[in-house]
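Reading a protein record of the kind used here takes only a little practice. The integers have meaning only within a learned vocabulary of local backbone shapes. With that in mind, consider the following protein and its fold in token form:
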Amino acid sequence: MKRVLIFLVPIIGGLLLLQPAGTSFATTCIGLPRLKPVHRNSGVVFVPSGDRIANAKVTVLEAGKEIAEQQTGVDGRFAFGQLRAGNYEIQVRVNVLGDASTQVVLVQPESYPKLEIAVNLSLTGPCSSFSLVNSKKFEAGLKPSRSL
């Protein structure tokens, strides 16, 4: 076994050295599970430090077609109350941070929402995340908003 390892290590090392200089090793985000169905397409956009993001562009698409758009308020919040039940895509864009998107199923939009969408925009790469949170408890842990 030791002889095999002694033989393979230099070969593998040599192959790694043969990689072109321009080759980059990009970060790959692991796919997050789909969000559970929601009762309202609303939530808050923030960064990992807990800072809310004001003026983020939030777009709702249905079957690939843009149907609604707004910017988050100074509190980082967004809400689309006029949507009917169905399948949507939410896209969030912040100029200095980039884009994030997820699929959402909206059910019973006229009912009172218990959970809202939290959009955590990554500062260091393409791995932003969407989650469902109890808004009152969740927002207590966030910092005041900032404009980017």
Q: What stands out?
A: The chain has two helices and ten strands.
